[in-house]
Amino acid sequence: MNTDIEYLKQLETDLKDAAARESTRMERATLQGAIRKNTGRGWTKVVGVAAAFLVVAGAIGFLAQGGLVSESATSGAAGFAPQEQRRPVGRDGGGASASAAPGPEAVPAPATGGSSVGFDPATDLDDSLKNQRETAARGQQQDLSKIIRDGRIGIVVPDNKFGDAVGDLTFIAEKYGGFVISSSTNNDRSGTFVLRIPAKRFDRAISDIRDLAMHVRFQEINGDDVTAEFIDQQARLRILQARKALLFGLLQRATTTEEVLRMSNQLDDVQLRIEQIQGQINFINDQVAESTLRVSIQEQNAPKAATQTDVDNPDLGSSVDLAVQGFLRIVGAVIVGLGYLIPLTLLGAIVWFVVWTVRRSRAIS
Amino acid sequence: MEDQRSDSELLTVSATEPGAFAVLYRRHAEDLLRYFARRTLDPEAAAELTAETFAQAFASRTTYRDTGANGVAWIYGVARHQLGRFFRSGRVDRAARRRLGMPERELPPADFERIEDLVDFAPIRGAVAEALATLREDHRDALRLRVIEQLPYPEVARALSCTEENARQRVSRGLRRLALVLQEKGLQPATEATTEMET
Question: Into how many domains does chain B fold?
Answer without folding.
Answer: 2
